[in-house]
Write a structure and sequence with these properties.
This protein has one helix and five strands. The protein has 86 residues and is of the alpha+beta class. The relative contact order is 0.19.
């Protein structure tokens, strides 16, 4: 199972095989060899530091929304397991 996260290309590396993407305010450099030439503003699905697919804006927005829901559910579950002060 792949847990890819969509990120917006905000910078292209000088070597042409890397790009900096932004995901929920966090920036990471990823390898773009598998998806070919990328352009600023494009969205890439990223897994373990590699761009594995280009996605359109609507698809990226939907996937980001799903990740936010997953993270919120995880936060809620974590808070339920935290010991309560007496």
């Amino acid at each position: 199972m792949c847990l890819g996260i969509p990120g917006k290309v905000v910078q292209i590396g000088p070597d042409g095989n890397t790009a900096t993407i932004e995901v929920m305010g966090v920036r990471r450099t990823v390898n773009t060899f598998l998806v070919g030439v990328v352009e600023l503003g494009e969205y890439l699905m990223v897994h373990t530091g590699f761009a594995i697919e280009k996605v359109d804006v609507a698809e990226a927005a939907e996937r980001i929304k799903l990740w936010q829901e997953i993270l919120a559910a995880g936060d809620a579950a974590w808070q339920e397991t935290e010991p309560r002060p007496r």
